[in-house]
Amino acid sequence: MRVRNKPWADSYIKAHGDYIVIDPKNWLGKWQTRFIKPQPLNVEVGTGKGRFIIEMAKAHPEINYIGVELQKSVIATALRSFMADPLPNLQFVLTDGANLDEIFLADEIQRLFLNFSDPWPKKRHAKRRLTSPKFLQTYQRVLSADGQIEFKTDNRGLFEYTLVTMNNFPLRFDYVSLDLHHSPENEANIETEYEQKFSPNGPIYKLIAHFTA
Ligand code: SAM
Q: What protein family does this chain belong to (predicted)?
């Protein structure tokens, strides 16, 4: 997703350092100190404009959430929505999800969300997909033994790619849907910005999986 540069983003991020981290490697092993109390940690990679993670944090005050996003202008927009009604159990991190194992300890994360990740359809860009083998290896390290990955997309090609790459890992599928919005589980579904925009065009695919080693 390409986004227009937002001139206000830099100063806005600097002014709200209590809720956003721009030097995540310095917080290795210390994430829980950024919340009012230590609780299970759930992370979304590619959080976009933040609707999903903000609504999740509202719905689950018993969990601490971190939204990771690569683009400054995008995360600044998420932060601005969040600042309308800040929550003590949500933090944002401006970084590349590829660095996850440099900023989180092994087994530190209980649940990892990937929502409508960029499909990178060209083969030469496959490594950038958030469910490529390199990323899965990283998730395997930072997820706790009973941790899960939840992945949603409207892109059938990316979903099939993800099933195949995951199948090459010691991993079990706990849930797979080829049409989330017409399944009973949709009642508890919190929609992302992309989901709201693209679900009228076709099905939403979802899987939940956990590593077995
Ligand atoms: N999850 C949001 C949603 O469903 O509305 C945004 C989806 S958007 C298509 C994908 C987002 O992932 C973009 O904001 C992009 O900047 C971010 N992204 C892509 N690669 C990333 C990476 N390696 N680390 C962190 N964020 C990434």
A: Belongs to the class I-like SAM-binding methyltransferase superfamily. TrmB family.
